[in-house]
Design brief:
Layout: E1 2-7, E2 12-19, E3 23-31, H1 33-37, H2 44-66, E4 75-81, H3 85-102, E5 106-110, H4 111-122, E6 130-135, E7 140-145, E8 152-156, H5 162-172, H6 179-186, H7 212-224, H8 238-266, E9 270-274, H9 281-299, E10 305-307, H10 311-314, H11 318-325
Parallel strand pairs: 1-4, 4-5, 6-9, 9-10
Antiparallel strand pairs: 1-2, 2-3, 6-7, 7-8
The structure holds 5'-O-[(R)-(carboxyoxy)(hydroxy)phosphoryl]adenosine and zinc ion.
């Protein structure tokens, strides 16, 4: 089964052709980083306009790269939500028009489920039950899945998402946009223990996440230590370097701690680390150590396997949407024109 996946929920216009849910024939991503960079974050109106400009050539390029024609696909999968409504509408409207004119089935995909499926592309035989940490600019969620297609929300962000928290500090310090990859790279040379960030305890015992306290604490550190934002083209000061390193450490510690608690409660066979922030080298390294290497050393075997997709599949892309849409194709309505974008669509 050959599926076209279309993704436009935030600031990437993406399309991909995927066979049988895991063979990626093409994967085209048009990033809008240049458009939003000077604003230090995504401007929704500009994002919709860019999607409109890009969607046509991105889809055509996906067919060209795969050396296939429109007739060669069995169906279309598109991100329905959650995301920016104007951005989602571009992808959904394009997919509906294409499905209608080609008379091909159309299925909708939840963006968060798409991120979960990104891990299956390179590892189709991932074992259930699984626990997924979906961590990106818009989401921080722990999701448990006992069997394919069934999801249970274990923890979610109560305020900022982890990527958003990284992007915001980078903006305050004049580092650039998006902040996550810059903080990842720069913090290789910083001191993670110079600044204290206390990890909030969520009193109801839930496995939710809260990162806004870190942001307030970082602002206090900036004020008390008189840390100046970097001047354009200037060098980052040692103290600012130590601040972002300590901040990243606190965010990673929080993500790891909540995932450890979820793992101890639910005993999954697989852990999936997905979403843009899953590219983070400290987060990947810590997951590997905590869930694979340490159990192996202490107990002689790892109780759980950890999966991290390649970076191109980790950030927003069309291949993960095609992969998540493939199992839904069997029940697809051939003319699902009632489908509409949904900004706050829930997975579970
Ligand atoms: O999944 P994604 O492309 O879009 C959303 O669904 O939000 O994730 C984008 C987020 C941004 O916040 C970006 O700063 C973060 O992923 N990110 C990273 C890294 N690469 C991307 N955060 C930390 N370390 C990275 N290496
Ligand atoms: Zn995403």
């Amino acid at each position: 089964m050959r599926i076209l996946g279309i993704e436009s929920s935030c600031d990437e216009t993406a399309a991909a052709l995927v066979e049988d849910g895991h063979v990626v024939l093409s994967n085209v991503v048009a990033s809008q980083i240049q458009t939003h960079r000077s604003f230090g974050g995504v401007v929704p109106e500009l994002a919709s306009r860019e999607h409109l400009r890009n969607i046509g050539w991105v889809v055509q390029q996906a067919f060209k790269d795969a050396e296939k024609t429109f007739e060669d696909i069995d169906g279309i999968a598109v991100t329905q939500g959650p995301g920016l409504i104007g951005s989602l509408l571009v992808g959904v409207s394009y997919a509906k028009a294409m499905a209608f004119s080609l008379k091909k089935p159309l299925v909708s995909v939840n963006h968060v489920e798409g991120h979960i499926f990104s891990a299956f592309i390179e590892n189709p035989a991932i074992e259930y039950p699984l626990l997924a940490l979906v961590v990106s600019g818009g989401h921080t969620s722990l999701i448990f899945s006992a069997k394919p297609g069934h999801y249970q929300s274990i923890g979610r962000a109560r305020d900022d998402a982890a990527g958003e928290a990284l992007d915001k500090l980078a903006k305050y310090l004049g580092l650039g946009y998006p902040g996550g990859p810059l903080i990842d790279r720069l913090s290789q040379n910083g001191d993670p223990s110079r600044f204290a960030f206390s990890i909030p305890k969520i009193s109801d015992g839930s496995l939710d996440f809260s990162f806004s306290g870190f942001k307030t604490a970082a602002l206090r550190h900036i004020q008390l230590s008189a840390i100046k934002p970097r001047r354009p083209g200037g060098k980052i000061s040692k103290i600012a370097l130590d601040l972002i390193t300590s901040y990243q450490q606190a965010i990673v510690d929080t993500l790891v701690r909540q995932t450890q608690k979820a793992e101890a409660r639910l005993h999954p066979r697989s852990i999936l680390l997905v979403g843009g922030v899953a590219c983070n080298s400290l987060l990947r390294k810590t997951f590997k150590r905590v869930f694979e290497e340490e159990p192996l050393r202490l107990e002689g075997r790892a109780s759980v396997r950890v999966y991290y997709p390649s970076p191109i599949l980790t950030t927003d892309n069309g291949a993960m949407i095609a992969a998540a849409g493939t199992p839904k194709m069997q029940q697809a309505d051939p003319l699902n024109l009632a489908l509409n974008a949904s900004a706050d669509l829930r997975l579970c």
